[in-house]
Specification:
4 helices, mainly alpha, Rossmann fold, single chain
C-alpha cells in the first residue's frame, strides 16, 4: 500500500452490511444504503484487503493477548486490526478504544 491509498477490509464491509441489514426498514436505512452503495461504486477506496492466513493467526494472537489482560475483544475487530498491522496501515475508526492495545496506529476522523 502507498501512503495515498485509502483501503478497507473484507471484514469492515461485512460489518457495514450487517449493520445496514439490522436497521429498521425506513427512510434512514434507505438513505444509508444509498450512500454506502455510492461510496462503494465510486471508487472511494483503492483496495479491499483480505483476511489471509497470517492475518487470521495475528488476529487470534491479539485476541488472546487482550484476554490475558482481562479485556474482551470482538473477533471482527481483531481481524481488522491484524489486516491493518500486516499492511502497515493506520486504522481510521471512531471506536479507537477497541483497537487501543493492538499495535495499530489509530486515526479518529471525527476528532479533527
Amino acid at each position: 500500500m502507498t501512503d495515498d491509498m485509502l483501503a478497507t477490509t473484507v471484514i469492515s464491509l461485512s460489518e457495514i452490511e450487517y449493520g445496514l441489514t439490522c436497521m429498521p426498514v425506513g427512510r434512514r436505512r434507505e438513505g444509508m444504503l444509498r450512500r454506502f452503495a455510492a461510496l462503494s461504486g465510486a471508487g472511494f477506496y483503492s483496495a479491499v484487503l483480505s483476511l489471509d492466513e497470517w492475518a487470521a493467526r495475528l488476529a487470534g494472537q491479539l485476541r488472546g493477548q487482550l484476554k490475558m489482560k482481562g479485556l474482551v475483544a470482538d473477533p471482527a475487530d481483531m481481524m481488522i486490526a491484524a489486516i491493518a498491522r500486516l499492511a502497515e496501515a493506520p486504522l481510521a475508526t471512531r471506536n479507537g478504544r477497541d483497537f487501543a492495545e493492538t499495535g495499530v496506529e489509530i486515526i479518529d476522523p471525527w476528532a479533527a
